[in-house]
From TrEMBL, chain A:
Protein name as annotated: Sulfide/dihydroorotate dehydrogenase-like FAD/NAD-binding protein
CDD domains: DHOD_e_trans_like1
Top-rank lineage group of the source organism: Bacteria
Cited Pfam families: DHODB_Fe-S_bind
Boundaries of every FAD-binding FR-type domain copy: 1-95
Automatic annotation (TrEMBL), chain B:
InterPro entries linked to this entry: DPD_II, FAD/NAD-bd_sf, FAD/NAD-binding_dom, Helical_ferredxn, SudA-like
Protein species of origin: Enterococcus larvae
Species lineage: Bacteria, Bacillati, Bacillota, Bacilli, Lactobacillales
Listed Gene3D superfamilies: Alpha-helical ferredoxin (1.10.1060.10), FAD/NAD(P)-binding domain (3.50.50.60)
The protein's name: NADPH-dependent glutamate synthase
UniProt-recorded Gene Ontology molecular function terms: glutamate synthase (NADPH) activity
Annotated Dihydroprymidine dehydrogenase domain residues: 21-132
Keyword annotations: Oxidoreductase
Coiled coil regions, renumbered to chain: none
Length: 278, 471
C-alpha cells in the first residue's frame, strides 16, 4: 500500500499529491513515470513523476480529472493509500548541458515538463520556458518553473494571464530571437504535434513525451506502441520521450481514441454511483 | 474384491456444455470426483521402470501417486506429488500431457487402450490438497538469502524448493499480482485464478516472501540484488510481444495477444465496467497464430460475445502447436479455422479503425530447420476476412527492461540469457537463470523443471561459497 502523505487542489480539476514510495523516490529521474492502481477493481494508469525526495521517501504526482479513474483519484485523501504504485518506468530524459534550451508545457503537461526544466537548469543550461493553458488557474507550477528558468513566458487561450494565444506563437518569437540547441514540448497530443511543426520550421530538434494508453508499462503488451521513423516502438520502455519529427502523429492521436465509448460509459456509471451515495 | 476389467478408454471428465460455456469464463472441465479418480487410477499398470516418470520434466513418481489414489489415500498421494512439484493444480490443468507423460504410458502404447489420464489424476490430488488447511513454516534464513526475479512458474518453483531447504527467499514481481503467465496469460476458463492464488499461498506458507510492484533494473538494480543476496534466480520469462509488422499494425482494433489477454485476465476486462479496464467487444475477430495463446485469445473473444471468431494459421492442423484438447474445445465452441493462411495487411475505414484482414493462401514446401514443412505463398490467392478485431498471437521475445540495465550478463543472438541447461548457471557467478528467458517461450512444466534444477544448483553454490569463506 502506498500512502498519500499530502494532497493539494491546484485548480478545480487538478490535484497535486505526495505519495510515500521510498524505493521509487530513490531511483526516479526526470522524464520517468509511475503506474498506479487505486483499488482492487481499478485500472492501471500512468502518471509522470513531477518531483521526488529521496530522504523523505515521497514522489510527487499531479493529475487532471478527465475520466473515472482520475475522478476517483481526486477523492483519495491524505492518510488514504493506493493499492499499487510501480516505477520509476520509462527512459529518463537525457539531461546534460546543451547550451540554451527551450521548454514548452501545455495544460497538465506542465507537471511532466517541470522535472526536465529543473534537471536541465541544474545541468547548467540556459533555460527558457513557455507555459500555456486554457485559463490562468490551469497555469500550474508557475513559481516552481520560474525558479529554474532564465526566462518564463506564460500564454493563455483567454488572455487571463500572460499573453493571449497558443504556445506555438511564443515558440516562434523565441526561435526568431534566440539560438536554441534543443526543445522539449509536453502537453496534449495536438499541441505536441504543432510544437513539432514549429520547431521543424526553425530546424531546432524537439523532444516530446508521448502519453499513449498503457496497461503494464513494462514492455509486455504493446498497447502503448507508437510508430517512430516507420518502426514500432513501445512508449513505456523505449520512451516516453521521442524526437517529435519521427512520430507518426495522426496514428498516435487516433490510437488515443480507442476506448472513447468505454471511457464515457465508465465515467457516467461512476458519476451515477457518486450521486446515489451522496 | 475381484478387479473389474480395465477400461479401454480414459474415464471421461465432466465438463460444461459448449453452448453454455462459450458465454462464460468459468472453468470448462469440472475435474474428477473420488470415484472417477479411483476408477481411472485402477487403469495404471504400475510399471516397474515407468516411462511416464522419465518423460515428466520434473520426474514425478507417477505410479506412486496413482497407487495412493487407487487406495483412496489422498494424503499419501499428495505427499508423493509434493516431493516433485510445487504447482500440481496448475500442471494437472495446463501441461501438454499428450506430449509428455501420457505419450509414453505403456497402457497407451497397446493398440486398444488410451493412456492413463495422468494429468487429470494429478489435478484431482492437487485440488483435494488445496482444500486442506495450510501449515505455515517458520523461516530461519540462516542458510542464505536468495532473490528470485519474476513470479511465474519457474520462479515460484525455485522459491518453493529453496524455502523447503531453509533459505530466506524474496520474489520480486513487476506486476501487481504474482503468477506471471498463470495470472495474466492463461484464461480463467482453463486455469481459474482462485486455483493459482491458492497454489501461490502454499508456496508463501513455506516461508517465501513475494514483493509485487518491483521492476528489477528500475525499482531495484541488479547491483543491489547481487550485493544483498547470496544468489539470485532470473526467471523473467519471454513476455515482449512480437508484431508481424504488416501494414496497419497500429490501427485501432489490432492487438497483441499479450495485451488482449492481460486486459481480460489480469485486469478483469471481461467484467467491465465493474472493473475499470475495458477490452473491445467485437463482432468479427481474427486471431493469428496456432499456439495455445492463439486458442486462449480466440476462446476469450467468443466469450466476450463475438459473433464470428476465426483463427488463421499459416500451416495445417497437423503442425498446430496448440494442445489438441484445446483445439477440440475451441471447435466445439464455434471457433473457425483458416488453415494455410497468412495475413498480409490490416484494412481500415477512414477513421483508422480495423474493418478487415487481407490474407493469402499458403502451401507447404520443403521442411525447414525445425523439420516442419515451410509454408510458401500461393500467387494470386489474396482474400479478405471481415474483422473489427485482430489479435496477433505469433510468439513473444525476451523483455529487455532488466537485460538492458545489466549488460554484463551474457545473452545469445535471440536476446535470451545464456545459461547452462544442466546447472542454470549464467556467465556471472551467483546469478542463475531459467524458464522462458533462457529457452524462449515454452511450457509451464519446462519452466518448472528449470526452476527445480536452479534450486538444487543455487543450494550447492551457496554451500560451496560458505565453506570457502574464511572463518
Amino acid at each position: 500500500m502506498f500512502k498519500i502523505i499530502k494532497r493539494k487542489e491546484l485548480a478545480p480539476t487538478e490535484f497535486d499529491i505526495l505519495v510515500d514510495a521510498p524505493r521509487i523516490a530513490k531511483k526516479a529521474q526526470p522524464g520517468q513515470f509511475v503506474i498506479l492502481r487505486i483499488d482492487e477493481a481499478g485500472e492501471r494508469i500512468p502518471l509522470t513523476i513531477v518531483d521526488t525526495d529521496a530522504e523523505k521517501g515521497w514522489v510527487r504526482l499531479i493529475f487532471q480529472v478527465i475520466g473515472k479513474s482520475t475522478a476517483q483519484l481526486a477523492t483519495v485523501m491524505e492518510g488514504d493509500a493506493l493499492i499499487d504504485l510501480v516505477g520509476p518506468l520509462g527512459k529518463p530524459t537525457e539531461i546534460k548541458n546543451y547550451g540554451t534550451v527551450l521548454l514548452v508545457g501545455g495544460g497538465v503537461g506542465i507537471a511532466a515538463l517541470f522535472p526536465i526544466v529543473k534537471g536541465l537548469k541544474e545541468a547548467g543550461n540556459r533555460v527558457l520556458t513557455i507555459l500555456g493553458a486554457k485559463t490562468s488557474e490551469l497555469l500550474i507550477l508557475r513559481d516552481e518553473c520560474a525558479d529554474y528558468s532564465d526566462e518564463l513566458i506564460l500564454m493563455t487561450d483567454d488572455g487571463s494571464l500572460g499573453e493571449k494565444g497558443l504556445v506555438t506563437k511564443a515558440m516562434e518569437d523565441v526561435f526568431q530571437r534566440e539560438d536554441i540547441a534543443f526543445t522539449w514540448a509536453i502537453g496534449p497530443s495536438i499541441m505536441m504535434k504543432f510544437a513539432t511543426m514549429t520547431a521543424d520550421k526553425y530546424n531546432v530538434p524537439i523532444y516530446v513525451s508521448l502519453n499513449p494508453i498503457m496497461i503494464d508499462g513494462t514492455g509486455m503488451c504493446g498497447g502503448c506502441r507508437v510508430t517512430i521513423s516507420n518502426t514500432i516502438k513501445f512508449a513505456c520502455v523505449d520512451g516516453p520521450e521521442f524526437l517529435g519529427e519521427e512520430v507518426d502523429w495522426d496514428e498516435f492521436i487516433n490510437r488515443m481514441q480507442q476506448y472513447r465509448g468505454e471511457e464515457t460509459q465508465s465515467n457516467e456509471r461512476y458519476e451515477e454511483q457518486v450521486k446515489q451515495n451522496g | 474384491m475381484a478387479k473389474v476389467k480395465r477400461s479401454y478408454t480414459q474415464t471421461p471428465m465432466r465438463e460444461q456444455e459448449a453452448a453454455v460455456r462459450c458465454h462464460n469464463f468459468d472453468e470448462v472441465a469440472f475435474g474428477y470426483n473420488m470415484e472417477e479418480g479411483q476408477l481411472e487410477a485402477s487403469r495404471c499398470l504400475q510399471c516397474k521402470n515407468a516411462p511416464c516418470i522419465e518423460n515428466c520434466p520434473v520426474m514425478i513418481d507417477i505410479p506412486g501417486f496413482i497407487k495412493a489414489i487407487e487406495d483412496g489415500d489422498m494424503p499419501k498421494a499428495h505427499e508423493v506429488l509434493s516431493k516433485y512439484t510445487n504447482l500440481p493444480a496448475i500442471c494437472g490443468r495446463v501441461c501438454p500431457q499428450e506430449k509428455q507423460c501420457e505419450m509414453v504410458c505403456r497402457l497407451g502404447r497397446s493398440k486398444k487402450f488410451e493412456p492413463v489420464a495422468i494429468g487429470k489424476l494429478e489435478r484431482l490430488v492437487a485440488d483435494w490438497a488445496l482444500e486442506q488447511p495450510i501449515e505455515y513454516k517458520e523461516v530461519t534464513g540462516n542458510k542464505g538469502r536468495v532473490a528470485v526475479i519474476g513470479s511465474g512458474p519457474s520462479g515460484l518453483t525455485t522459491a518453493g524448493d529453496l524455502a523447503k531447504l531453509g533459505y530466506e527467499v524474496i520474489i520480486y514481481e513487476a506486476l501487481h499480482a504474482p503468477g506471471g503467465v498463470l495470472t495474466y496469460g492463461i484464461p480463467e476458463f482453463r486455469l481459474p485464478k482462485r486455483i493459482v492464488n491458492k497454489e501461490i499461498e502454499r508456496i508463501v506458507a513455506q516461508g517465501v516472501t513475494i514483493e509485487t510492484n518491483v521492476v528489477i533494473g528500475k525499482t531495484i538494480t541488479m547491483e543491489e540484488i547481487m550485493e544483498e543476496f547470496d544468489a539470485c534466480y532470473l526467471s523473467v520469462g519471454a513476455g515482449a510481444p512480437n508484431f508481424m509488422g504488416i501494414p496497419g499494425t497500429s490501427l485501432n482494433g489490432v492487438y497483441s495477444s499479450s495485451e488482449y489477454l492481460t486486459r481480460i485476465n489480469l485486469m478483469h476486462g471481461y467484467e467491465f465496467p465493474k472493473y475499470d479496464t475495458p477490452v473491445q467487444r467485437s463482432k468479427n475477430v481474427v486471431v493469428i497464430g496456432g499456439g495455445n495463446v492463439a486458442m486462449d485469445a480466440a476462446r476469450s473473444a467468443k466469450r466476450l460475445g463475438a459473433d464470428n471468431v476465426s483463427v488463421i494459421y499459416r500451416r495445417s492442423l497437423e503442425e498446430l502447436p496448440a494442445r489438441i484438447e484445446e483445439y477440440h474445445h475451441s471447435v466445439e465452441e464455434g471457433i473457425e479455422y483458416h488453415w494455410l493462411t497468412n495475413p498480409i495487411e490490416y484494412i481500415s475505414d477512414d477513421k483508422g479503425t480495423l474493418t478487415a484482414v487481407k490474407c493469402v493462401k499458403m502451401e507447404l514446401g520443403e521442411p525447414d530447420e525445425s523439420g516442419r514443412r515451410r509454408p510458401v505463398v500461393i500467387p494470386d490467392s489474396e482474400f479478405i476476412i471481415e474483422a473489427d478485431t485482430a489479435i496477433e498471437a505469433i510468439g513473444q521475445g525476451a523483455n529487455k527492461v532488466l537485460l538492458d540495465t545489466f549488460p554484463e550478463l551474457g545473452t545469445n543472438k535471440w536476446g535470451y540469457v545464456e545459461a547452462d541447461p544442466e546447472t542454470a548457471a549464467t556467465t556471472i557467478p551467483g546469478v542463475f537463470a531459467g524458464g522462458d528467458i533462457v529457452t524462449g517461450a515454452a511450457t509451464v512444466i519446462l519452466a518448472m523443471g528449470a526452476g527445480k534444477i536452479a534450486a538444487r544448483e543455487i543450494d550447492q553454490y551457496i554451500q560451496k561459497v560458505r565453506q570457502e569463506m574464511p572463518v
